[in-house]
Write a structure and sequence with these properties.
- This protein has 140 residues and is an alpha+beta fold.
- It has a 5-stranded antiparallel β-sheet with strand order 1-2-3-5-4.
- Strand 2 and strand 3 form a beta hairpin.
- Helix 1 packs across helix 3.
- 15% of the residues are buried.
């Protein structure tokens, strides 16, 4: 994996990527954080969406439903999926078989991830800036 990641860094014109203590490589592209790691026979590309399901209100459920509908359309072309990690954080993840991974396929998966992040991030920000309170009308 290290050789593949270093070839990718060279192709992107960046310095070599260095794994953290958990064996994950942090790749920053266009302001988005992508973590590349190995899970069994697969490579996993994960991006945090900075949205916690446990701390969201019930009105945010509409956002999850809307995003889940979009995942179906992504699945036609990309391997990305929305997942909720054990901490309740919403993540965008893609898996690819390590045995079939090339620099080109890894770059394609990263670019697909960035494209989806660019599409999803404004939706999450829109929900984040909406007031969490609803104005109640008092009627005697």
């Amino acid at each position: 994996m290290e050789q593949l990641v270093n070839q990718l860094a060279e192709q992107l014109g960046q310095g070599p990527f260095i794994a953290d203590k958990q064996g994950r490589y942090l790749i920053r592209i266009d302001g988005f954080s992508l973590y590349l790691s190995r899970h069994g026979q697969d490579y996993l590309i994960a991006s945090p969406l900075n949205w916690n399901v446990n701390q969201s209100s019930t009105s945010d459920g509409d956002l999850l439903v809307r995003l889940a509908g979009q995942v179906v359309s992504w699945a036609r072309r990309y391997s990305q999926a929305l997942v909720i990690n054990p901490l309740g954080e919403l993540m965008l993840e893609a898996r690819m078989e390590a045995s079939e991974a090339t620099v080109f396929s890894l770059e394609q998966a990263l670019m697909a991830q960035i494209g989806i992040l660019e599409h999803v991030s404004p939706q999450l920000q829109e929900v984040a800036i909406q007031p969490q309170w609803k104005q109640a009308i008092w009627r005697p």
